[in-house]
Amino acid sequence: AAVLAPHLDEARDAEAILALAICDPAMGSGAFLLEAARFLGDRLLRARGLGVDLDVEADRDLSPAEIAGPRILAARREVAERCLHGVDKDPVAVDLARLSLWMLAGGAGRVRDFLGESLQCGDSLLGARREDLAAYPHPATGRAAPRRREAAGEDLSLADFDAAPRDAQRRMLDAWIALWLWPDVYAAEMPRPSALFAYLAAAAASDAGSPGVARAQAIAAAARFLHWPAAFPEVFARGGFDAVIGNPP
């Protein structure tokens, strides 16, 4: 509430509340996202002039869906589907968070479809941006150094990246950041700076036969990279998240 309340002072009508983008970058099984769904669901009903309807009868056992009436369940579902985002490196935690939010919102439909890519499996601290692809990483110096074009047509423009399918974009970003984590034992497979753009293009096409691509795929699978702008393009197209919640790692 302390994090979200200031945003609600500005977003007092229902559509403004539903326009908020909230993220837990280390969500675990979704405890903070569940509380956000409850808190924002209640505020959404108030903004619409509706009360929280509880259907409680003392003489029978009740399921969570029966305890919370249909209006609050619908509000929580709207909030979850339009406002909530989460990331965790553990795929089991992501599944648990999805199941927990699905149950909180009434359990309608298939749990595997609920929230789609709003909940993602990945390492929140390891990722790249499209702008990074123009430079070759130098792990020894801890920086990315610009690469000179040695021949016409070798460049990878941002327009080329933007035109690529979303999965291809992720594969390029995976391949780029894999260069930072390349094991010394496989140094012979590491693409040279002069081959950076050919390597990224091969990664985009998932050409495991091209030099370095198979190794990059293995590194990415083990590290579970999370490229924020590529993972949540709609959110970053509007400027990013309004609030980040959760326990600091």
Provide a quick synopsis of the model:
This protein is α/β, with parallel strands linked by helices and 249 residues long.
CA radius of gyration: 22 Å
Number of strands: 6
Q: Report low-confidence residues grouped into runs of 5 or more.
A: 54-60, 148-153
Question: Helices and strands: which structural class?
Answer: alpha/beta
- Please state the average pLDDT score: 85
- Cα distance, first to last residue? 20 Å
Question: What is the global morphology?
Answer: elongated
The amount of beta strand, in percent, is: 5-15%
- What is the count of helical runs? 12
Oligomeric state of shown chains? single chain
* Largest beta-sheet characterization: 4 strands, parallel
In N-to-C order, the SSE pattern is: HHEHHHEHEEEHHHHHHE
The helix fraction, in percent, is 40-55%
Q: Give the neighbour order of strands across the main sheet.
A: 3-2-1-6
